[in-house]
From TrEMBL:
Protein name, as recorded: Predicted nuclease of the RNAse H fold, HicB family
InterPro entries the UniProt entry points to: Ribbon_hlx_hlx, TTHA0281-like, TTHA1013/TTHA0281-like, Uncharacterised_HicB
Highest taxon, organism lineage: Bacteria
GO biological process: regulation of DNA-templated transcription
Amino acid sequence: MSTLEKKQLKEYLERPYNIILKAIHDEAGQYYAARVLEFDGCIATGETKEEAYAAVSEVLEGFIEDMLEDGDPIPEPIGDDQFSGNLRIRMPKSLHRNLSQAAKLEGVSLNQYLIHKLSK
């Protein structure tokens, strides 16, 4: 790995990628799994949250290193600034009618009604 690639690797590793930790209970026992949301297949496990986090950080470093060497594009971290809060969906007219009627019965706007239902 060249000096430039090492510098780029360090810069990428400082970015706020989203690491998701999850407790797992299965036939193998109890452990933690960690994955990096922006990188498909960037997964590791550990007996504790800290071990899983450290392990997935090492895997992430390997992913980025390989991508730099191969000249592949490296994903940007997913942050809140990438979401506008707007969502446009299409639905059957009958569903639209039913939802609008339900919102009217509740005395709220269709938007408020949908947000309430989706947040449950």
